[in-house]
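BUG-331 | component: ligand-complex export | severity: low

The export step for 2-oxoglutaric acid jobs runs without errors, but we want the raw record kept on the ticket for reference. Input record follows.
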Amino acid sequence: FAPAARLCPMPTPHIYAHTHNAHNQNEDRWDTESESRRQVQNFTTTLPLPEHAADKTIAERSIAAMETPRPPALDGRCAVNLDTHNLRWLHVDPPVLIVDDFLSSSECAQLMRLTTTDLPGDAGRIIKINSQTESGLSIKQRISTTWYVRFGIKIVAPLLKKVLDLLPSINLNNLEELQLVRYLGQREGFAWHLDALRETSATLEAGGQRVATVLVYLTDCEGGGGQTLFRDLKMNDGRRLAVTPKLGRALLFFPSVIKSQTDLGEAGDYGNVYFDETSSDLRTSHAGQPPNVAKHIAQLWVHLSAHTPVVFGTGLNKHKDAQQNIDDLKK
Ligand SMILES: O=C(O)CCC(=O)C(=O)O
Ligand SMILES: [Fe+2]
């Protein structure tokens, strides 16, 4: 990618903010079982109806795009290695792909271990936060626990390597800090949202806009629930696109579109070139359905250009710390 030279105004999607230590206070309010049932009901009934439910052309265009070697729907996105083993299209325009067995069960188990107390020697500091953005009586945004993991931890190297193999046009520097997310029970989930950043957050330091989202389910989500739902996208059978958690399965989609524009202007004029104009792909609104028991995911956002990791403090979590571990895997 060229550097994000100009970041343009775009529709303002939701981003979530992490509210520290808010979780326990709210736990108290949810003590009774009926209260927690009500939370779940609210969560489901406040989901807006699909906006494009009647748009048959989406399905038709998806099928047409699927038949070409390089689906036009991938234009303006970061490149995807379409030869990746087990890669499957769930939706073409906008592209939603899954890769089963992206991570092995031992790789998933090792990542899960980072969310328990006995950390490996090279783990250093892992930041655990209660990522709760809740308002009023219903889950309006996200209720979960998030662990931020440093790039230099050996355990994350297989995941990083596989993401780089899947997305050949990016490099390590494009990645935002790795997050491990746990939703515990039916009171935790993530309501409809867009992953793209607000214009004010898509700064040069941040690496500009988020151009790809990679989620890996770390367990089978025993007990059911916990699907990743796409509000406005349909499966072939007409039902809403829902991705079921499966151990090792990766989900890939693109929360924004990149448009480079050249405006030649009038004769005698210099004209204008706009680089890397991004906008949220509003069709990718999605949600994390509450699991019946527990759901664990690893989550990586890919930026348009080099992202400066800030969660651990400036300079305390460097992309290049992962490089040696990744190179070791190739030996
Ligand atoms: O939990 C899920 O299935 C979705 C998570 C998600 O959308 C996110 O972290 O941005
Ligand atoms: Fe998301």
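Assignee comment: Attached the raw record above. Residues 1-54, 134-138 have pLDDT under 50 and may be disordered.
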